[in-house]
Here is the input.
Amino acid sequence: MFSESFRYPSLPDEYLKEYLLPEIYQWSLSNGLIMYPPDFKPESTSIAPTTVFPTTLPKESFNKAIDVQKDYNELYAKISQDQLGWLTSEAAELAKSDPDFTGKLWDTYLKASKIGIKQKLRLGLFRSDYLIDKSANEIKQVEFNTVSVSFGGLSTKVGELHQFLNQSGKYDVAKGLEYYKYVPVSDSDVKLAEGLAKAVDRYDSISGNACVLFVVQNGERNVFDQRILEYNLLKLHGIKSKRMTFDEIPELTKLGEDNRLLIKATNEEVAVVYFRSGYAPTDFKTDKDWDTRLYLETSYAIKAPDLLTQLSGAKKIQQLLTEEIYLRKFVKEDDIVKKLTSTFVNIYPLDNTSLGNEGKRLAFESPEKFVLKPQREGGGNNIYKEDIPKFLNSIDEGEWNAYVLMELIKPEETMHNIIIRGDEYFKEAIISELGIFGYILFDDDTIYNNEYAGWLLRSKFNSSNEGGVAAGFGCVDSVVLY
Ligand code: ADP
Ligand code: MG
Ligand code: MG
Here is the structure.
């Protein structure tokens, strides 16, 4: 095992301020480890929230998370293929208790299938997130993301930053880093671009120069993370991309023959619509934006993801999969069932099933063991511990079904680190969430490509419940394995 000093690297404050921080700022600005600041000014960028040191992770946990990724990809692809009608019946039910968002997604899907969804290919760019549970010393899944997964680009950058600092001797002054022989770098920047390229390749373009349309948010701070994928698409695959917000799409695109999606100005065909927006209610400002979502769903472009794949990422679906009868609908092999379930913690519904009644009891009797989650993405939406009972009491019991009650995973404070946010830095104990990326290209009955696509480590102060980087709680980090 390791000395305390290994887990708690320390270095003189003077060295940090006078020398190491300027090195980090300059490397980050030179290489694009950047983000727009919280007050979003397009002309001013700053370093993305990041750690000074990589964080140590047990090799075994890291490898296990990677090892199970293709099984997760396949599981969610099979759910989304919906051959058993399970997802659609669960989504229809969930839509009732969450009309504001799940209901809208579901409604848009129903409209799309009525019009007819001609493009059968769909692309999932996924990220499965884990914390390492302290007592079991095992990875436990926080959630499975099926839409707008971010930080595939910046994860590579932060690994490269730490590798640079290590290789060039900048950490030499720090005590306790003698084990930093090798800082691995995530290849998510190229693997996610590769996923998009596989979809473009399989798309039967009539023009031969089909592009990828990135659907993005207005005022997106995490632009550079996305642009890394765009640059890799062009550099490594010769594929061009466009960026548009929901409100620009009706103006700038049109449908051609067979509902092919075309860029108006150039007549270029769009092979893949890649959503980096559309995962939160605020992404749809008006009904017109929902019409645009429908228009894209019924266009012949491949969606990354389509609405069913997005719906499969609902926290309710994650809860249901912890009930083995549902998991077994999609996974037949005992060893894979075992692999997947070993990453689960208990998740309860708050409905009228017996498990739901158990959930309701636990929410009031021992809320300190739980987090309550709505069907939302992007961080900042959960209710924690003692806040759960009063929150549930404040809403109508009819709405409880829109939430799941999840056991809190208790990670170890991995180490002390220094988190840089803008021009400030903070020295604290951190905990880290490991994300594993994957991509999968499939249609209603066939899976064409299923790949692991790199990793992400995000760290946060132990004092904060949530770890969203853009939401302002966490930062991007890299790993050293032991
Ligand atoms: P979102 O889709 O908004 O990212 P998450 O399920 O990832 O929702 O929850 C947000 C954050 O809340 C996580 O990144 C993690 O920090 C914390 N969290 C969520 N579930 C758990 C859990 N079971 N145990 C401990 N922390 C959790
Ligand atoms: Mg999420
Ligand atoms: Mg999350």
User: Anything to note?
Assistant: The radius of gyration is 22 Å. The chain has two domains: 13-345+409-481, 346-408.
